[in-house]
Write a sequence for this structure.
C-alpha cells in the first residue's frame, strides 16, 4: 500500500532540511536572512503537496520498488519549490493580499521596508517578491536535480522544461483574458488545460515516470488519468473561489471576481444568462473594488443559470474518466489505488 501521508511527510522533511542554514551555506549571502526566512515560511506553511505526491506516484508507477528513495523525494520536493515560485509571482500579478490564510509574500516584504511611503512600500514588496520567486526557481532546480543520475537527468529535464513552458503559457492566457468580458469557452478550456491539467496533475506524474524510466504504456495511462483529474481539480477550484469558506480556502471570495478571471464558470454563465443577468455580470465581474455582497449577486446568477449544476456534472464526468484510466493493466495495483484516492480528494474538497 502506498501511504500518501508518508510521502507528504518525506517531502516536508526534505524541504525543511533544505532550509537548514548549513545546507544553504555558500549559496546565499549572509545578509539575505530575510529572503530565506520569508521563502521558508511560505514553503513550509500550508499547501496540499499534490504535485510532489503525484511525482512520487509517477515514479512508483514505473519502478514500484526503487532502490533509494532520496533522489525521488528530492525531485518531488523540487516541484513543490517550483510551485512556491509560481505562487509568489502569481500573487503579485493578481494583487492578492492573502494566500493559505496568511499575507502573500509581496505583502510581507512590503512590511519589511522601514520608513517608506505606502506607494514605495508596495513597489518594494512587488519587486522583492519577484526576486524571491526567482530565487525559489533556482532552489527548485537544485532540489530536484542534485541527486539524480545523468541518465535520469536526460529523461527528466525535457519534462521539466515542458512543464515550465506549459504553465507560463497558461499564466499568460489567464492574464491576457482577465477582464475581457469574453464568453469564449474554448479559451477557458485552454487555460484549464495549461494551468492545471498539465501543470498540476499530468506533468508531475510524467516527470516522476521519466525518472523511473517508465514504459510508453505506463506514461499513456498516466496521461489518460491526469488530464481529466486536472480539469476536475480546476473546476472545483473555481467553485471554491466563489462559494468556498475563506477561513478554509485561505483566500477571499472577491479575488477571482476582482481580477475578472476568464473561468469556465463565467463563460458558461455569460452564455446562459438572461439579458438582465448578462448586464449585471458585465458590471460586476472584473470590478476592481467588488464587495462581498456584490459577489453574492454573481453567485446567485451562477446558480440561476445552471452554471454550478453544470460544473458539478463536468467534475463528476472527469472524475469517472480518470478512474476508468486506472483500470490499465500497466499500472501497479497499489499505485492505481493511491491515484484513485488522489482523484477522490481532488474533487471532494473544501480548500
Amino acid at each position: 500500500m502506498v501511504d500518501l501521508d508518508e510521502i507528504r511527510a518525506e517531502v516536508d522533511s526534505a524541504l525543511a532540511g533544505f532550509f537548514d542554514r548549513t545546507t544553504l551555506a555558500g549559496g546565499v549571502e549572509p545578509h539575505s536572512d530575510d529572503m530565506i526566512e520569508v521563502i521558508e515560511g511560505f514553503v513550509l506553511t500550508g499547501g496540499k503537496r499534490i504535485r510532489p505526491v503525484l511525482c512520487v506516484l509517477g515514479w512508483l508507477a514505473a519502478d514500484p520498488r526503487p532502490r533509494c528513495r532520496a533522489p525521488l523525494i528530492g525531485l518531488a520536493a523540487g516541484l513543490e519549490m517550483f510551485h512556491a515560485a509560481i505562487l509568489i509571482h502569481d500573487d503579485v500579478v493578481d494583487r492578492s493580499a492573502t494566500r493559505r490564510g496568511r499575507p502573500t509574500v509581496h505583502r510581507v516584504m512590503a512590511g519589511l521596508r522601514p520608513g517608506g511611503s505606502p506607494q514605495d512600500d508596495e513597489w518594494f514588496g512587488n519587486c522583492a517578491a519577484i526576486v524571491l520567486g526567482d530565487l525559489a526557481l533556482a532552489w527548485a532546480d537544485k532540489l530536484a536535480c542534485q541527486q539524480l543520475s545523468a541518465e535520469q537527468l536526460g529523461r527528466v529535464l525535457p519534462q521539466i522544461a515542458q512543464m515550465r513552458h506549459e504553465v507560463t503559457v497558461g499564466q499568460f492566457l489567464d492574464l491576457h483574458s482577465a477582464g475581457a468580458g469574453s464568453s469564449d469557452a474554448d479559451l477557458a478550456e485552454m487555460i484549464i488545460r495549461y494551468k492545471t491539467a498539465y501543470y498540476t496533475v499530468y506533468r508531475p506524474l510524467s516527470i516522476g515516470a521519466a525518472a523511473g524510466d517508465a514504459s510508453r504504456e505506463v506514461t499513456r495511462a498516466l496521461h489518460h488519468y491526469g488530464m481529466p483529474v486536472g480539469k476536475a481539480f480546476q473546476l472545483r477550484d473555481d467553485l471554491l473561489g466563489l462559494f468556498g469558506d475563506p477561513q478554509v480556502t485561505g483566500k477571499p471570495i472577491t479575488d477571482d471576481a476582482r481580477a475578472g478571471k476568464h473561468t469556465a464558470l463565467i463563460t458558461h454563465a455569460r452564455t446562459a444568462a438572461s439579458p438582465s443577468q448578462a448586464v449585471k455580470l458585465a458590471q460586476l465581474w472584473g470590478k476592481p473594488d467588488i464587495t462581498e455582497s456584490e459577489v453574492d449577486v454573481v453567485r446567485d446568477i451562477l446558480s440561476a443559470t445552471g452554471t454550478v449544476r453544470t460544473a458539478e456534472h463536468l467534475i463528476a464526468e472527469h472524475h469517472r474518466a480518470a478512474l476508468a484510466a486506472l483500470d490499465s493493466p500497466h499500472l501497479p495495483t497499489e499505485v492505481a489505488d493511491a491515484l484513485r484516492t488522489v482523484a477522490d480528494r481532488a474533487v471532494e474538497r473544501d480548500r
